[in-house]
Amino acid sequence: MDIDNGASTALLTDQYELTMLAAALADGSAHRRCTFEVFARRLPNGRRYGVVAGTGRLMDALADFQFGAPELAVIEGFSDARTLAWLRDYRFTGDIDGYAEGDLYFPDSPILSVRGTFAECVVLETLILSIFNHDSAIASAAARMVSAASGRRMIEMGSRRTHELAAPASSRAAYLAGFDATSNLEAVRRYGVPGAGTSAHAFTLLHSGSDGEHEAAAFRSQVEALGTGTTLLVDTFDITQGVATAIEVAGPELGGVRIDSGDLGVLARQVRDQLDRLGATKTRIVVSGDLDEYAIAALRAEPVDVYGVGTSLVTGSGAPTAGMVYKIVEVEGVPVAKRSSHKQSRGGTKKAVRLSRATGTIVEEVVYPAEGPAPATNGFHSRELLTPLVRGGKILDSLPSLSDSRDLVARQLISLPWEGLKLSSGEPAVPTTFP
To answer: Which intervals hold domain Nicotinate/nicotinamide phosphoribosyltransferase (predicted)?
Structure first.
């Protein structure tokens, strides 16, 4: 969730974290040194990889995680004076390491390692998970769509299908995963994502009245305002007539036509043939309307130039959360682990390396004790996955930019074994092992 810049993020949390804090302060355990780790026990059903997203947003949120008078006024209704006094002075002073934003992850990958006192770490749980679960779900779905599109332009246009504060975060995650632009202007302002957008059916209908359908008047108005490089929506009425009218009004140099309904594959072929006959050989075809990675893949052989994706993207294409958890794994240097059925965790602070062939293809991810020796590479190239993000409570200045993370996603997708890019259900593309 995004909030206004400069506003406190401290209440983006669950009450149970503060009840644990109160009890730990009372019994003296609050100041024990601990490690918490973020990981996903499994990938969403059928998925073969995940994309780490949200790190940059977490760093921004962490900087504003402090309890002022408005926040304390909410908490005093259920907490005690000792806890309120501790929260009043709260600043995270620990260390955080994490996978680079834009890197891939697999089941049990230790995506984030948070170290400090129990008190200062436990209150961050909901903030961390809400950001990473949302952004990683969107980025993981977006990466599958980008792969299915095979290099064709992708526009994120899901703002009207998600919460208004989640929309810019979704745009950012989609751009990180390889989308080219967004319709959401707050994402343009806040994150520098390129913007895109033209018109909807309402604009065409606006120019119609009791005397008939004046599609040409709508197109003419749009072209006069935005130039011939604009994209005209041609399926409000009859699509064949709409294409003819669009070229009649704008000429063969029209930038694009958009199709938002019907059998997109059949219509794209028909529209391409019609445009070419009219001399508009460079006019692009943009398609939208309930697209997901499977629909995009099915259109791969069709003359589609641009995909506009909304609902499926901002809902994670069936997996709206990445299923990540935030678990304590070490207390005062002693490994601790949860043993509940189907919810086990592995104790101890960890590091991870990814092994790959000389060609760059990943073969294995190895998770090992942070204080232990690095695992044998067996002749493979080895890359450390956890990088410093925060030291002594200070957010490091050397963190990658959104553009850097976007480039990393593209490189890592290329490094997957070929079967890892399949859209069909299957096992994770890379095994995670624990020596």
So the answer is: 154-352
Residues 338 and 309 in one domain: no
Query: Domain span at residue 67?
Result: 15-138+319-433
Tokens representing residue 395 in the block: 């957010």
> Are 202 and 258 members of one domain?
yes
- Please list, in sequence order, all residues whose beta carbon lies within 8 angstroms of the beta carbon of residue 116, skipping any fewer than 6 positions away: 33, 34, 92, 93, 94, 95
Rounded to two decimals, the pTM is: 0.94
Confidence of residue 343 (pLDDT cuts 50, 70, 90): low
> Is there a domain that residue 289 lies in?
yes
Residue 420 located in a structural domain: yes
The H-or-E segment that residue 366 falls in is: strand 362-369
Of 315, 340, 359, which residue is a domain's last? 315
Longest dimension (CA), the chain: 80
**Nearest CA-CA partner of 111 in 48, 43, 174:** 43
Six token digits for residue 282: 């460079």
Amino acid, res. 129? L
Residue 147 lies in a domain: no
Give me the percent of the chain exceeding a pLDDT of 90.
Answer: 93
299 and 329 assigned to the same domain: no
Residue type, 240: T
**Closest alpha carbon to 129 in 49, 14, 30, 19:** 14
Query: CA geometry: angle at 164 spanning 156 and 423, to 5°?
Result: 35
Tokens for 266, please give them.
């059949």
In the structure, what pLDDT confidence band is assigned to residue 213 with cuts at 50, 70 and 90?
confident
In the chain, count H helices and then E strands.
Answer: 15, 19
Concatenating the DSSP letter of every residue in 166-187 gives THHHHHHHHHHTT--EES-HHH
Structural domains in the chain (count): 2
Q: Which of 288, 315, 342 is the last residue of a domain?
A: 315
Strands 306-309 and 33-40: what pairing?
A: unpaired
What is the chain's percent helix, strand, coil content, to nearest 5? 40, 20, 40
> Locate tokens 């030291």: which residue?
391
Whether pLDDT at 2 is above 70: no
Read off the DSSP letter of residue 212: B
The per-residue DSSP string of 274-328 comes to HHHHTT-TT-EEEEESS--HHHHHHTTTS---EEEE-HHHHTGGG--S--EEEEE
